[in-house]
Amino acid sequence: MGPGGAEVTESLGLDLFAALERERATGKAGEVVSVPVFGAGRGAASVDGEVDVTLVLLVGLGDGSVAAHRRAGAALARAARGIDRLASTVTLTSDDAALRAFVEGAVLATYALGGFRTKPVDDARAPLGTLALAGDGARDEVVATAVTIALASWTARDLAQTPSNVKDPEWLAGRARQLGAEHRLDVRVRDEKALADEGFGGILAVGMGSVRPPRLIAMRYEPPKADRRTPHVVLVGKGITYDTGGLSLKPREGMVPMKTDMTGGAVVMGVLAAVRELGVEVRVTGLVAAAENMPGAAAQRPSDVITQYDGTTVEVLNTDAEGRLVLADAIAYAVAELEPTVVVDVATLTGAATTALGRGIGALYSADDALAGALRDAGEAAGERLWRMPLVDDYRYALDSAIADIAHIETTKVGGGSITAALFLQRFVRDVPWAHLDIAGPARAESDKNELVKGGTGFGVRALLYWLEAGAPVT
Ligand code: BES
Ligand code: MN
Ligand code: ZN
């Protein structure tokens, strides 16, 4: 039994070992055994005569790893629903990384979307109110960092979960302005007129099927001590506020989850909201290419040829492959105008990525080994697994177009839809170090599991923030 076990056993007169035995507890990570304290509330069961203890929760820490701590934190927070205050001694035996993971897990699992119900549902017990951690306060900063990161994921989840009758590109821009005001970020939004004047042909083409016009949102963070040599990270997020597929309409069931098709953008916004609090030492610009992909009367047609921001002409053969068109503009703009040290884009880009890696792992593409390694390591440490996928030269010809510079989907069958999408994006990065995260799988959770809550996950926020905290290493 971990620290505090003996004290609790003694002061409350509980036989915790008997409880563990009764439940056949194994101690695996995230296992929780609840031991109610009888007579609580009448002063009968108090520690040091001060606090009435109504429940003791025993949580398994498995192999004691960082991942096990994340799981334990999440399980504890879930088991403590409906409870106002919980004190934990887990922190007494965990190092900084484990403490962080424990707190991140607890806060992430406590997430609940509010605001769209008129009455609470019967079994919706309130999330745990306060979690007190045993310790002397020397590690308050570690805890604060963990909370900031988890809340950045909450921000992304909130945005992703918002229904699309509420959430359109201008609404998303409004949220960016709000976050900018709260976190001292410079926010600039291009409307459809500015996009047209400056030649953002991909964002406009995707947006023109909707009566709710597209936006390009730019959020800029400048660290307190920046000079000319301070690296500049540009994060680009796919911000499709709803993806019907456009004229290449999606089938009925496939369309339902598409309010979360702006998760990449939401992740970028969540990250930008956290960088100042985390003391990130590099410049960060977040670009969210926001459009609603609808089959309106002015919608683009399969077979149209559009011109991207950098002048590349693209034959659009399937209007449901809209994400790469808006991303290509934003990436090309970053490369041409923002002098980035590195560009990372995040997108719910292809169903094929889910087919390849499932719901638990994000697809990572980069030609830069150091960048790919750093992102993978950051994801591993943060509990967001990334798997490196190949940018196969042999598949490039599949994007050949008979009429334009390039087609945006394969014109020759090679398969590997996530790979061909990444190859399309790669054309727009020129010689800038670049990574692409296809998060179509892990952007949503089908059920509550560990630190995830059913619905939007905000996948990518943690990995990117861990990476930025480490100084965003590139070759
Ligand atoms: N937003 C979808 C990708 C997606 C699918 C995300 C399922 C999450 C769950 C994207 O815009 C899309 O429709 N991609 C097409 C590309 C195809 C037309 C080349 C796809 O994956 O089918
Ligand atoms: Mn689509
Ligand atoms: Zn999409």
Oligomer: single chain
State the fourth-level CATH superfamily of the largest domain. Zn peptidases
What is the helix fraction of residues, given as a range? 25-40%
Unreliable runs, pLDDT <50, ≥5 residues?
A: none
Which distinct ligands sit in these coordinates? ligand BES, manganese (II) ion, zinc ion
Net shape: elongated
Under the CATH scheme, which architecture of the largest domain would be assigned? Answer: 3-Layer(aba) Sandwich
* End-to-end gap: 45 Å
Please work out how many helical segments DSSP would assign: 15
Major pleated sheet = 8 strands, mixed
Structural class, by secondary structure, is alpha/beta
- The domain count comes to 2
CATH class of the largest domain: Alpha Beta
| Total E-strand runs | 19
Evaluate the radius of gyration: 24 Å
* Spatial ordering of strands, largest sheet: 7-8-10-9-13-17-14-15
Structure commentary:
- GO terms for molecular function: manganese ion binding; metalloaminopeptidase activity.
- This protein is α/β, with parallel strands linked by helices.
- The chain has two domains: 130 residues, Leucine Aminopeptidase, subunit E, domain 1, CATH 3.40.220.10; 314 residues, Zn peptidases (Aminopeptidase, 3-Layer(aba) Sandwich), CATH 3.40.630.
- The protein is built from 15 helices and 19 strands.
- The strands form six sheets. The protein has an eight-stranded mixed sheet with strand order 7-8-10-9-13-17-14-15, with helices on both faces. It has a three-stranded mixed sheet with strand order 11-12-16, with helices on one face.
- The longest helix has 22 residues.
- The radius of gyration is 24 Å and the shape is elongated.
